[in-house]
Structure formats: C-alpha cells, structure tokens
Design goal:
Rossmann fold; Jelly Rolls; 12 helices; ten-stranded mixed β-sheet; alpha+beta; seven-stranded antiparallel β-sheet
C-alpha cells in the first residue's frame, strides 16, 4: 500500500525553491513511549532558521521512517515552510519496539499509538500545540485511525489513497478475500505471519471495530483533505469517510471535509490508468494545495483553501476524445450529485437494456471451475496491473456471461455507487458471483470501469455465514463501488457476470469448508435468471448530462486565462500544460494572435511557442521537452509563460533526461 506520488511531486517544488539553499537540516532520533511502555522510534526535524515554537506535521509509517523522508523534503518543510517534521516507525516496524500489529495499535483499542504520539509532541518545547498529519496509503490508514481517537491537539489531516475500514476496504470485499492485495503486501513487508490472522477470522467481528472508522465518525473532530483515485484499491473507503465525517463528525470536522478524486490508480503519479490515458487529468497542483491546507489550518493563513468547493472529481469519458463529453474536472459542495437509479436489465441473447423482462425469457448458465478461474486483467489492484484494461480476452470465455447495450445515441453520465442485482442459483452450498462494468468503444475495446464480487455465504451479512440450498434461487447484490463516467455517443455499456476474478480475489472452492481449509474443490453449475419474476439488472446512478457537463463546468471557468502547473513535474518524456480559458464576453478577451504560451530557458531565450486560438474551457498542451524545431532539450529548469495583452503568468518546469 505504498505510494510515492505525493512525495515525488513535492520534491519538484522543493528542488526549485531550495536551489540556492544550504542543506542544514538536523535530525534527532528519539524513542517515544506509548501507554504500555513500548517505545517507538521517531525522527524529529526542526527548522534551523527562524524562531519557534512551530506547528508540527506528523507522519507515521510501517515502511521505515528513513524511506519516508529525504533531506530535500525535510529542508523545505522545516526551513522553507517553518514546520517541525515528525516521522515515526509504527509499532514493531524497523527501529520501533513491540510486536508488528498491522494498524491494530494505531486506533482506539487497548493501545493508541497515534494518540499518544500527538500528545507527546505537544509537550515538547519546539511545539506550539498545533499538529497536522500527512501521508498516503499505509501512512493514510494510520491517519484515519488516529483521527478516530480524537486527540485534543490534532488540528487537521491530509490523507491520500487510504482505507478507513480495514476489513471492508482492504481485506475482504463482499465477503471474499482480496488475495493479491493482502497476501502480497504482507509478504513483501515481512509480515506474512499475519496472513493466518485473517485466515482464522474471515467474518466481520467486534475485533475489527478498532480499525473501522465508520464506527466512530462522530468522534472525529478535525478537518480532513481526502485524496483518492477512481481505480484505487481504497476509493470507496475514502468516499465513505468523507461523507460520514462531513455529515456526522464533531463540530470542527462536520462541514470542513474536502474530497478530491482523479482517474488514478493507487500511485497517483501515473499519467496513465491501465491502457488508457485520461485527457486533462494531470492539471492539479496537489503539492500547492497541500501547503495551502496546512498553512490555513496550522498557521491561520488565508490561502483560500477553506473557501474552495468541498468536492472536486474527475469525470471520466472516451479517452480518445480530448474534447469529448467527459474528461474534465467537476466541482461540487456535496457528494454524490443528484442522480436517478436507472435499471439496465439482463436480457436473453446477451442484451442489456432498460426494458423490463417478460415472462418467457430463459435463464443463462455456465460452469465455474476453481481449477480454471477467470484471470484478473486490471481493476483496483496494487501488486498486479491496475486500472482500465480491455476485457475481451476474458469475455470470450464460456464461464463469462456478457450483456451489452445498443450503441448510445446520447451521452450517458453515471456518477455515484454502482450495483448489480443478480438472481441466481447454484448446485453447491457456497460459491462466488462477480460483475464487471465496461465501456465498449466503437472499435470493440471493452474497457473496465469497475468490478465487484459477492461470496454466497455472505450475501446477507459479513458477520455470519448463510449457505445456499442447491438449486434454490437467491437474490445477490454485487457492489461495484463508486465511479464517475460519461459513456459517449456511439459507445455501449457492458456488464459481464462470472464466478471468479483471480488473483484480485480468492477463488472459491465451492465446497463450503472454512476459509482456506478446503482439501478439495468442485465445479459449480451456475444459473442466472432474468425474467419478470427474477429481473437481474445493472443499476447506474444516472446524472443529467446538461447539469454535469455544462452548468457545473462553465461555472468554474475563470474570468481571464489561467496557467496551471504542469504535470508530471519533473518529467523525462513529456508533460501536460493546462490552460483554463474564459468564455469571450463582449470582446473582453480577444483572440487575435496576442495570446501565446512560450517555453524559456534560464538565460531567457524563447525555445518554443504556441499561439492560442481556442475560445473557452480547458486546453491541454502536451510538451515533449523539445524546441521549436523538434530538437530534444537537455536536463534543466525551464519556464513556461502565458502572455496576452493584459496578463503574464509563469510556471517553472524541470526536465530530467
């Protein structure tokens, strides 16, 4: 669950800002005592210039405190931005004492290591009593659990790509084990011995409450900036945390949450998502927003972050259409946007449409063999390929049922939680059912949007087991989590149903034996029903296209041209430069060749120029680090400047060959 994305981006800002600074950062390592006497190894970086006490930024990591921080980043956070930086190894990890407990000591259980660390910091002479937390993935999970303990001196958090409910967000999904995520992560981090813990506790039980923030939303007392990706392994957990705390949090937490969701996998530094590149996606200055967040809450500076919309999300679309109906950022004050649950029914002949089935439709059947499972191709993964991949190679299998709409005449916008109601029977007492939602392109590509699974024994509850009666028809709900997608005209919506998605999920042996205690497996004969009595359906949260694509997007356009920070930065092949262009109104902004974007070197020489002729909206310019004649430029610092008759905006770029 480790992400390099935020730190990689921050290095750029720091490098540029600190080019002429001497690196004088000093680090002290102390052993901070917890309430049970166990001591946690903690690095303290304090400003070498300026006078304290200072606000503190706390990072708690199971990956080793040395790997979480470089002297470059530490120098910027301390000397440039005047924060004390505190980086800690979690219990039982690297230089810390105690037993590795996989987050179970980070929340509100018998041990509360995050709480104890915050309250230790505030007692130090260099602390001014204001503490914020920061980090991604595992470093974000420790923050969610810390927020649930409500330490008096915690002021704010910035949490990226992290689970807020360890059982449902990370370990089990629809009752089925997330094999590649959990096993590979534990084994890769020398914690393989903990696999047996989950093997012995596959059902939700009170023991999981102390790693489930949804049991304590009302205990959270701080504003949190939640950053996630539509193809991230934890996205639903972040959305749940945002909504739960925004509505039910303590006085300072409720109404002060922020949510940012991009078209990203777990590593949000990636500019591609599986086999697709999302136009206009890399336009955010996330490091700048991070500094604005901390400077506002920890220093009281008016950075504007508090007045920004509560939600900003990327609306995915046809990745081949830069100017298509999707592929843009939407801002809102709430989540999710108003939508209509729209049913697309499974029909005979592989048809998917909104017509309610009649009485005469025959069911579809397939056999699921655990010894020959459907192989995972993309999706919300960590240790195997992640993101949107073409599913045609698995859709052609005889154990996969495929249902597709006719090509769409108009845009279909779906934003929010996606579910499948499946009426099915099996000839075994336990099995799985899977679902995949895909966007079918005119050229035939079936690109994955979201997927999910339900284990039959957990179809009604994750706290217990209810086995099937062979041959009896049951209703299953498959949760595909949330998404935001525009199915463009000419595209089709596709739903595929099967019983395996391996290694993303454990393969069910179909025997009903306790988890991972089966000695054999058996083939299951599955029957999927779709008639008037058993109307199996895909349920999409459909949003009015005109509201999402016109009203909201135009309301965010600036009054004059704006140059955003390029992304990625630094870059070694190509980078994206975004312009936000206003709507022309009575000639207030003319397009007579006076608006231009130019690249300069440190000597002030203009190396490349684009003349802007487009009238309004988001414009993305892709620069490959070359000059006007296509010659590649060397590693170095460059300047990007947007100029017209009334403005001049400049951004720094770093090219690394």
């Amino acid at each position: 669950m480790k992400s390099r994305s935020f730190y990689y981006s921050i290095i750029v800002i720091v490098f540029i800002s600190c080019m002429n600074m001497a690196f004088a950062v000093e680090r002290d390592t102390v052993m901070v005592p917890m309430r049970d006497g166990v001591r946690l190894a903690t690095d303290i970086y304090r400003p070498s210039i300026g006078e304290g006490p200072w606000p503190s930024i706390l990072i708690r990591t199971p990956y080793g405190k040395a790997s979480a921080m470089s002297s470059l980043i530490a120098t910027a956070i301390t000397d440039l931005y005047q924060y004390t930086l505190v980086v800690q190894d979690t219990r039982g990890r690297f230089d810390s004492e105690g037993a590795d407990s996989l987050y179970f000591s980070d929340g509100w259980g018998h041990n509360q290591d995050g709480y104890d660390t915050v309250e230790w910091i505030v007692r130090q002479s260099w602390s001014n009593g204001k503490i914020g937390t920061w980090g991604a993935s595992a470093l974000g999970i420790t923050q969610y659990l810390l927020a649930g303990t409500a330490p008096p001196h915690l002021v704010c958090c910035l949490i990226m790509v992290a689970a807020s409910n360890l059982y449902e967000d990370a370990i089990f999904y629809g009752g089925e084990y997330r094999r590649s995520l959990v096993d590979n992560w534990l084994e890769n981090n020398d914690s393989g011995h903990l696999i047996n813990y989950f093997t012995q506790h596959p059902n939700y039980a009170p023991m999981y409450d102390i790693v489930n923030l949804s049991t304590r939303y009302d205990s959270v007392k701080v504003p949190i900036f939640h950053v996630g990706g539509w193809h991230d392994i934890f996205i639903q957990g972040q959305i749940n945390a945002f909504s739960g705390i925004q509505e039910r949090g303590g006085p300072l937490a409720a109404g002060n949450q922020k949510l940012l969701i991009g078209p990203w996998v777990h590593d949000i530094s990636f500019t591609t998502c599986g086999e697709l590149f999302s136009p206009n996606a890399g336009i955010l200055d996330l490091p700048g927003q991070t500094l604005d967040w901390f400077n506002y809450w920890l220093k009281g500076e008016d950075t504007g972050i508090a007045q920004s919309p509560a939600v900003r999300y990327y609306l995915m679309g046809d990745a081949d259409q830069t100017d298509g109906p999707g592929n843009r950022w939407i801002e809102r004050e709430d989540w999710p946007p108003p939508s209509t649950p729209t049913y697309y029914y499974l029909r005979s002949g592989g048809i998917l449409n909104s017509d309610v089935p009649n009485d005469i439709e025959l069911p579809d059947e397939f056999d699921y063999d655990p010894e020959n499972p459907v192989i995972t191709i993309g999706g919300r993964n960590l240790n195997i390929p992640a993101g949107s991949y073409d599913q045609r190679s698995v859709e052609s299998r005889p154990d996969v049922l495929v249902y597709t709409t006719d090509p769409l005449m108009d845009s279909l916008v779906a934003v929010g939680r996606v579910t499948v109601t499946l009426w099915a029977s099996s000839d075994v007492i336990d099995t799985d059912f899977t679902a995949k939602l895909c966007d079918v392109y005119p050229d035939g590509r079936s690109m994955l949007i979201a997927d999910g699974i339900v284990q039959a024994r957990h179809r009604n509850t994750i706290s217990g087991e209810e086995f099937l009666i062979p041959g009896e028809i049951y209703e299953f709900t498959i949760d595909l989590w949330s998404t935001a997608i525009v199915f463009a005209p000419g595209h089709c919506v596709r739903l595929s149903i099967s019983s395996s998605n391996y290694e993303r999920f454990e393969k069910n042996p179909n025997t009903g034996e306790p988890f991972r205690q089966n000695t054999t497996s058996q083939i299951a004969h599955q029957i999927v029903y779709h008639d008037s009595e058993y109307p199996s359906a895909l349920i999409l949260p459909v949003v009015k296209a005109e509201e999402t694509l016109v009203a909201e997007s135009e309301s965010t356009l600036p009054e004059r041209p704006v140059l955003a920070q390029n992304y990625p930065n630094p870059f070694n092949h190509e980078t994206l430069i975004q312009l936000r262009l206003p709507v022309i109104d009575n000639g207030k902004w003319n397009l007579e060749g006076n608006t231009r974007l130019e690249i300069f070197d440190l000597r002030g020489r203009c190396l490349k120029r684009w003349v802007i002729t487009r009238q309004s909206g988001d414009l993305i310019i892709r620069w490959r680090g070359d000059d006007q004649y296509g010659n590649p430029l060397p590693t170095g610092i460059y300047f990007c400047r947007l100029t017209d008759e009334s403005l001049r905006e400049t951004r720094k770029l770093m090219l690394m060959r």
